């Protein structure tokens, strides 16, 4: 089971529902990662108990924004992220037959996997590589070349990103690494 939200119910949802995991990744910017990865569980509750890619893709955008904005807001920038999540769902409906897992399950190799993820709303180059690393290290998604596609995030024994978080200790190590990187960038 994933340990990104550091909350058993939220982590179970991330582990079992590919859409929840993708939404958490979209939201994982400019807020604490536990908050980002807990948000899909909260969104599911606000949408009546399910995260349905087709429902989110086709719902009134203002209704989705209202679900994101309701207190506590699901993100520091809830309206922008509601639009990003809706666009993500539309892409999944259009490009992957409404099945979020097809983003990674049908990729022939690491390059195709990276390209698919990078093309999704909310995924830049680094986040896409981190997700490839997470898929390979923790979810067993390892098409040929996945480690090359993940770059440094695919290496074993590192504590650089969410790909490496498997418990509270590894979360602390990842946070320490990120603080070192910020300090080095300021120097």
Descriptive report:
By secondary structure, the chain is mainly alpha-helical. It has one domain (8-155): Endonuclease III, domain 1. It contains eleven helices and no strands. Helix 8 (110-118) packs across helix 9. The chain is globular. The model has no long low-confidence stretch (mean pLDDT 97).
Percent of residues in beta strands: under 5%
Mean pLDDT score, rounded? Answer: 97
The arrangement of helices and strands along the chain is: HHHHHHHHHHH
Low-confidence stretches: none
Choose one word for the global shape: globular
Features:
187 residues; mainly alpha; Endonuclease III, domain 1; 11 helices; 0% strand
Short description:
With 187 residues, the protein is mostly helical.
Set out the fold topology:
Layout lengths: L7 H9 L1 H10 L5 H14 L6 H6 L2 H9 L8 H18 L6 H4 L4 H9 L6 H14 L7 H5 L17 H19 L1
Helix pairs in contact: 1-2, 1-3, 2-3, 2-6, 5-6, 8-9
């Amino acid at each position: 089971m994933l340990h990104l939200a550091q909350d058993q119910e939220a982590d179970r949802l991330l582990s079992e529902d590919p859409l929840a995991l993708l939404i958490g990744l979209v939201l994982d910017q400019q807020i604490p990662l536990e908050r980002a990865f807990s948000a899909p569980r909260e969104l599911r509750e606000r949408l009546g108990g399910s995260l349905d890619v087709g429902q989110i893709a086709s719902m009134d955008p203002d209704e989705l924004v209202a679900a994101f904005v309701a207190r506590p807001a699901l993100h520091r920038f809830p309206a922008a992220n509601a639009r990003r999540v809706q666009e993500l769902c539309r892409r999944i409906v259009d490009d992957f037959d409404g099945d979020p897992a097809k983003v990674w399950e049908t990729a022939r190799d690491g390059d195709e996997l990276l390209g698919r993820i990078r093309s999704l709303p909310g995924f830049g180059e680094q986040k896409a590589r981190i997700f490839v690393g997470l898929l390979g290290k923790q979810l067993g998604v390892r098409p040929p070349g996945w480690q090359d596609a993940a770059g440094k995030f695919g290496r074993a024994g590192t504590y650089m990103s969410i790909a490496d978080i498997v418990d509270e200790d590894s979360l602390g190590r990842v946070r320490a690494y990120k603080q070192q990187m910020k300090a080095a960038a300021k120097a």
